Amino acid sequence: MTTGPFATPYKDTIVQLRYLFDAWGVKGTEWQVERNGYEEETVVSGRVRRRWITAQPPTVMVSYYRQGQWQHLRCARYETYDANLRAIYLLLERMRISEGHGVTYGGLTSSQELVPVGVGPSRRQQLLSALHLATDAPFAVVEAAWRRLVRNASDEGDDNQVKLLNNVFNELKSEMVGK
Questions:
Q1: Of 150, 161, 84, which Cα lies nearest the Cα of 115?
Q2: What confidence tens digit (pLDDT) does each residue in 88-134 have?
Q3: CB 121 within 8 A of CB 165
Q4: Would you tell me how many other CB atoms lie within 10 Å of the CB of residue 132?
């Protein structure tokens, strides 16, 4: 289960995207959210039942038309549609806030090579990302980040976050020190 800022339900993030695009002047017909997967229909006792079959990895793409061109943002890093959509929303919200502070940009590209759909980050990359660290972080930096994050989570009384951080740290420790 995803915790922290990425635990927001998919439908709630859609509502927040609607407000964000309204603030940017992007009309409802000029943006869309797509997710991979498919809808399956079955007939049970004369009733049609539909359910969404999640593709792996669950990928979300947000497209929007702004300032004369279409923009596309895709995320497949996390294990749920909710978390992947939330990551895109947080980026867009930060861009909106930055524009309010005078930041301008154009022709943005991904800061890393585009990864084909179906290829996600390694387990180590995911664990280091949970600690907000780069993939080449030495163990001493990993340990310091873990201590800081656990202390903050403890101060906030978030026992679930503390457990999650401890699990992440123990898995990284066994991989990095256990070799």
A1: 84
A2: 999 999 888 888 888 887 766 665 544 444 445 567 777 777 777 77
A3: no
A4: 10
